Amino acid sequence: MIRSRLLILVLCSGVTACGGKSPTSPDEFPAVAGSYAGTTTIVFPELNQTVTCPTTTTVTQSGSSVNIAPLQLSGDCGAMSVPMGPGVIDDDGELQGQRTGTVTDTCGTYTFNGTAGFVGRELRVTIAFVSNTCWNMNLSIRLTRS
Fold first, then answer.
1. What pTM did the predictor assign?
2. Which of 23, 57, 69, 106 is the most exposed place for a label (fewest CB within 10 A)?
3. What is the domain partition of the chain in residue ranges?
4. 8-22, 66-80, 122-136: which range is least confident on average?
5. What CATH class is the domain 2-145?
6. Which DSSP category does 9 fall into?
7. DSSP secondary structure of 115-135
8. Each residue of 94-126: pLDDT tens digit?
9. Pairwise CA distance, residues 90 & 22, whole Å
């Protein structure tokens, strides 16, 4: 049940749960293309439960445009594939776009707030899902480029 709820929410938020500023010039974008591996940690505060799953993905890039292949989660998350998709980075490596929004699940509506970006050789994503009728969730994804 936790795995299916996580999949639905991450699918709905994807790369749109990011933020950033406007790019200044094409030659200032960090090179972020490559293969990434690390972990996704999901914290369920009300359940006092944390799940950590090995995670991999691949990023392609053309200037400020990046495409993040579906995240491949394993371990306690089973064999889950979470689509991410295209995005635009600024000169600091932050993904631009919507930072907040809402998604509806079978238990009710979540409000989410997140950030994503590339810091050095890492892809970092954090998303907080808050609901009055569902379990709250905090996602932290930290992947390192090989």
1. 0.80
2. 106
3. 2-145
4. 8-22
5. mainly beta
6. H
7. EEEEETTEEEEEEEEE-SSS-
8. 999 767 899 898 999 999 998 899 999 999 999
9. 6
